[in-house]
Specification:
The chain is 46% helix and 21% strand. The chain is α+β, with helices and mostly antiparallel strands and 388 residues long. The protein folds into two domains: 161 residues, GAF domain (Beta-Lactamase, 2-Layer Sandwich); 150 residues, Heat Shock Protein 90 (2-Layer Sandwich). Helix 2 runs antiparallel to helix 6, helix 6 packs antiparallel against helix 7 and helix 8 crosses helix 10. The radius of gyration is 28 Å and the shape is elongated. It starts with a helix and ends in a 5-residue tail after the last strand.
Length: 388
């Protein structure tokens, strides 16, 4: 047995699958998963050749990962005569592919009298793209062996879905970063002018309340400028200031900031009395809580309660923020973290996208779901090392 991604593609050209000018396939997490699955099936099934094909959304092209057991292939006369070579080329050309192949169902192909071919579609990304696992065997697969093949195809399907979701998030975050870069360029000069005029007013005004107000304007502009810089570079770990912070302290600061909104709607925010310490960038994490809590306040009914819980495990902390509003429509759940998508009248649609980017920069994940009793729950994870 030998890994033969390059050997297979060079001996049997794949114009539909790879670019012949490329000497190797790009490395990725999903590519490694494909290799592991293929190696496992090769060891457990009477394999002659096996490959998986998938579409890379980020690069916009298809990839092939394969293994080919040349030693076994040449043991039979009809392989020596070239029968296997021509049949394998036919399989790789994909002229046998049908759009009605079901997802996660094993289909046997009648392509040769000398070996058996089985294909399993692992996703239905689009009507023009075939993502599948294909295996050629020297013997017909039993029901138990087909179930083994299907189980591994299911694993591939799950990983492919996660891989594509991650790629989609990275593309959206890249677009958001570009937008923030443009916003910085447009806001930096006006802020500098406000700062200059405020300083001129401070120098011209007599000591007293008006001079103090001019000083406050300058300080506020300086703070906005600093936050703008932090926001622009928030996704770069080198610019994050990681320190150990108590979640109680961070959420307490957020509640003070949002106190006027809480009083207006007569809302309470409950959170655990037990402290939990995490290593985070304080200002960035405060932005996450500010965005999630202000969102919960907006959609909470008057006089209600917003609940914040956290659960510390050995490797991570899970934080949950729940409101008792009307929940989120199913069609909105898939859109809610997209930049510029907002359910709030007058909202920018950037709050949740920024929160997601910050959590990803902290090596965590952020997601949302509806609660059975009503309302929505935003949850996110942060890395954690339990204190001894």
């Amino acid at each position: 047995m030998r890994v033969a991604t390059q050997k297979l593609t060079s001996q049997f050209p794949l114009p539909l699958l790879v670019n012949n000018s490329e000497s190797k396939l790009p490395e990725s997490d999903f590519n490694q998963i494909c290799q592991l699955i293929i190696q496992q099936l090769t060891a457990l099934l009477p394999t002659v050749a096996i490959w998986t094909v998938y579409h890379d959304l980020e690069k916009g092209k298809r990839h092939l990962v394969a293994e080919y057991l040349a030693e076994q292939a040449w043991q039979t006369n009809h392989f020596v005569a070239g029968q296997f070579n021509s049949d394998c080329t036919f399989l790789q050309a994909e002229t046998w592919w049908r759009e009605d192949f079901p997802v996660l169902k094993i289909t046997e192909l009648t392509t040769s009298d000398f070996y058996h071919s089985y294909v399993c579609r692992i996703s239905k990304h689009s009507v023009t793209t075939a993502d599948y696992l294909l295996i050629c065997t020297s013997k017909s697969l039993s029901a138990e062996q087909q179930q083994l093949l299907l189980s591994n195809a299911q694993i591939l399907s799950n990983y492919l879905a996660m891989y594509r979701e991650r790629s989609r998030q990275q593309q959206e975050i890249a677009a958001l970063s570009q937008t923030l870069g443009q916003a910085e360029h447009q806001l930096r000069n006006p802020l500098a002018l406000i700062n200059l005029y405020a300083e001129n007013l401070r120098l011209a005004l007599p000591q007293g309340d008006l001079q103090e107000q001019a000083t406050l304007i300058r300080q506020t502009v300086d703070e906005l400028s600093t936050k703008l810089t932090d926001l622009l570079y928030r996704g770069q770990r080198a610019n994050l200031k990681f320190k150990k912070h108590n979640l109680q302290t961070i959420i307490g600061e957020c509640i003070k900031t949002l106190q006027h909104l809480l009083k207006e709607k007569e809302l309470n925010i409950n959170y655990p009395e037990k402290p939990v310490y995490v290593t985070v960038d304080h200002w960035q994490m405060k932005q996450v809580f500010d965005n999630l809590l202000s969102n919960a306040i907006h959609f909470s009914p008057r006089g209600g309660t917003i609940t914040c819980n956290w659960y510390a495990y050995s490797n991570e902390v899970i934080i949950e923020i729940c409101d008792r509003g009307s929940g989120i429509a199913p069609e909105e759940l898939k859109q809610i973290f997209k930049p510029y998508y907002s359910r709030r009248l007058g909202g920018t649609g950037l709050g949740l996208a920024i929160a997601q980017k910050i959590i990803l920069a902290h090596q965590g994940n952020l997601w949302v779901e509806n609660l059975p009793e009503g309302g929505a729950q935003f949850s996110f994870t942060l890395p954690h090392k339990r204190q001894k």
